[in-house]
Design goal:
heterodimer, A: Rossmann fold, 2 domains, 5-stranded parallel sheet, 4-stranded parallel sheet, 9 strands, 13% strand, B: Rossmann fold, 3-stranded antiparallel sheet, 27% helix, 26% strand
Chain lengths: 336, 186
């Protein structure tokens, strides 16, 4: 009896869903405000298959052979960029990576000219990050390539939000009815903005928690006019955390202190740092997420960052699977 | 399109039992056999073959599932992308006799993709192919080792295998586009 690693009944479910064709209408991925629940669930489903690929010894499939994916970052990034490049390479695409802060942008070439050059090189997909909100939208007006927004200004970071959603779903199952608290500098956070769209579309309740000076102006009007009935605001972290299923922390950029938006860093730490004591106010299994890079000792205590409820490292790993899924959906088809 | 039932449930079951016997005979036992079903309908068929082999030989046969979506040779021309289903081969296939199981054997392109996918998972001692229906029209130089039933078809016909785990019943049907019902022996 050598071959007994697994019985068939353990490995394979009794009934099988009929095969499906993906219904996918997005040519670009700019934000999650135009993603439906079905779109997000499809990304999850394909990401599950990509997760299996990532468990193999040889983490490479031939799916996007012959496609060229260019990452264009006008703003520094380590993990998003590395994640996209790994995702593209795992799918056998060719990747070109341009550090726009060092290229001809410095010589005065405009964004559109710059992107046209990249397209002329034969890019099927351009992943771009830019410090100006809306830059990827501008790009779609001039280019035939698919554009993936790798973060634009304070506006959106859709792939980060999808990997956050995917990480939560892998731990807690359905997102419906989950209480998610986003703590930190909401005003300057594209991660928070994209997550608000994604979370509410998936049926979660979102509580934004920040000092009033770090909340976007006009937030209440925005919640009203978009009828985001599942979004609330709470300035005390203790009240916000009560009964939370998920706590998402945002990086506090130190330059905010100089800008006068914070009375002092010490006060922020005192009032908003996620400590073990505060974490105990949430549900016992509550997950702690952070898009990185973390300021340990500022928005998050080290005992929480590396504690049992932290899924921060897993977010990074899931990011590769989710970006592989998105590249498959975007670049897999015929160029229009 | 008129539909005709070519194989009723009893005959489908008999064909599978015969294929299970052939697999055991060819491999002189079942000690190193791993069955890998191709999504979607190859998976329940592989599971049934494993059940029969287990009752013949008295040993557990590992069964895996394989989705070839990431290995297709037509992805760059498809507007609608296939949903990728579960690939789960629960044992190391290196050194094993892997029997790929599919419902309909047609152009051979899926099998080519499946062989590439398997090679990425390990280095089997051999890969064999078991299919319920061989309908001909190969476009690549591949052949099946075990065939439930040969059904000569024309290219504009559609052969569909129904299995109870997916479709609620067992049967094999053929659809002809022009209203002419063939008896499957043209």
């Amino acid at each position: 009896m050598e071959v007994t690693d697994s019985t068939p009944s353990a490995a394979i479910p009794e009934t099988f869903p009929p095969p499906a064709i993906a219904v996918w209408r997005h040519r670009h991925i700019l934000d999650l405000d135009d993603f439906t629940r079905e779109d997000i669930e499809l990304v999850f489903e394909i990401a599950d298959a990509m997760t299996e690929v990532l468990t193999r010894d040889v983490k490479r499939v031939p799916t996007l052979r012959g496609k060229t994916i260019v990452t264009m970052f006008y703003e520094p990034s380590t993990r998003t960029r590395a994640s996209f490049e790994l995702a593209a390479k795992n799918l056998s695409a060719d990747t070109v990576s341009l550090d726009a802060s060092k290229s001809s942008v410095v010589k005065g070439e405009s964004l559109v000219d710059n992107l046209r050059t990249i397209q002329a090189l034969g890019a099927d997909v351009i992943v771009m990050r830019h410090s100006e909100s809306g830059a990827p939208y501008l790009a779609t007006q001039y280019l035939n390539s698919s554009i993936i927004n790798g973060g634009d200004g304070w506006h959106a970071h859709p792939t980060q939000a999808l990997l956050d959603l995917y990480t939560i779903r892998r731990h807690l199952g359905e997102l419906d009815g989950l209480k998610v608290v986003i703590v930190g500098d909401i005003m300057h956070s594209r991660v928070a903005r994209s997550n608000i769209w994604g979370m509410t579309t998936m049926g979660a309740e979102v509580t934004l928690c920040a000092p009033p000076t770090l909340l976007p102006r006009g937030l209440a009007d925005f919640i009203d006019c978009c009828q985001l009935t599942n979004v609330g605001v709470e300035s005390r972290i203790e009240s916000a955390l009560e009964g939370a299923d998920v706590i998402m922390l945002l990086r506090l950029q130190r330059e905010r202190q100089q800008s006068g938006l914070l009375p002092s860093l010490r006060e922020y730490i005192q009032r908003y740092q996620l400590t073990l004591e505060r974490l105990s106010l949430a549900k016992p299994y509550a997950l702690v997420l952070h898009p990185g890079p973390m300021n340990e000792g500022i928005e998050i205590g080290p005992e929480v960052a590396y504690g049992t409820q932290s899924v921060i490292e897993e977010q990074v790993a899931n990011g590769v699977a989710v970006r592989m899924a998105l590249l498959y959906l975007i670049a897999g088809g015929r160029n229009k | 399109m008129p539909e005709k039932v070519l194989i009723p449930p009893e005959d489908m079951e008999r064909a599978l039992v015969r294929v299970a016997h052939e697999i055991v005979e060819r491999n002189r036992g079942a000690e190193h056999i791993v069955l890998v079903g191709m999504q979607t309908r190859g998976v329940p068929l592989a599971k049934r073959l494993a059940g029969t082999i287990q009752s013949l030989e008295g040993i557990d046969i590992p069964v895996g599932s394989l989705d070839i979506g990431l290995y297709r040779d037509d992805l760059s021309s498809l507007d609608l992308k296939p949903v990728i289903q579960r690939t789960d081969v629960p044992t190391d296939i290196t050194g094993k006799q892997v029997v790929l199981v599919d419902d309909v054997f047609y152009t051979g392109r899926s099998i080519r993709a499946a062989m590439d996918a398997l090679m990425d998972l390990g280095r089997p001692e051999s890969i064999q192919l078991a299919v319920l229906i061989d309908r001909g029209h190969r476009e690549l130089p591949v052949r099946a080792d075990y065939v439930g039933k040969n059904i000569p078809t024309s290219r504009d016909e559609e052969v569909k295998v129904h299995v109870k785990e997916v479709d609620g019943e067992d049967k094999v049907t053929i659809l002809t586009p022009d209203g002419e019902v063939t008896d499957g022996s043209n």
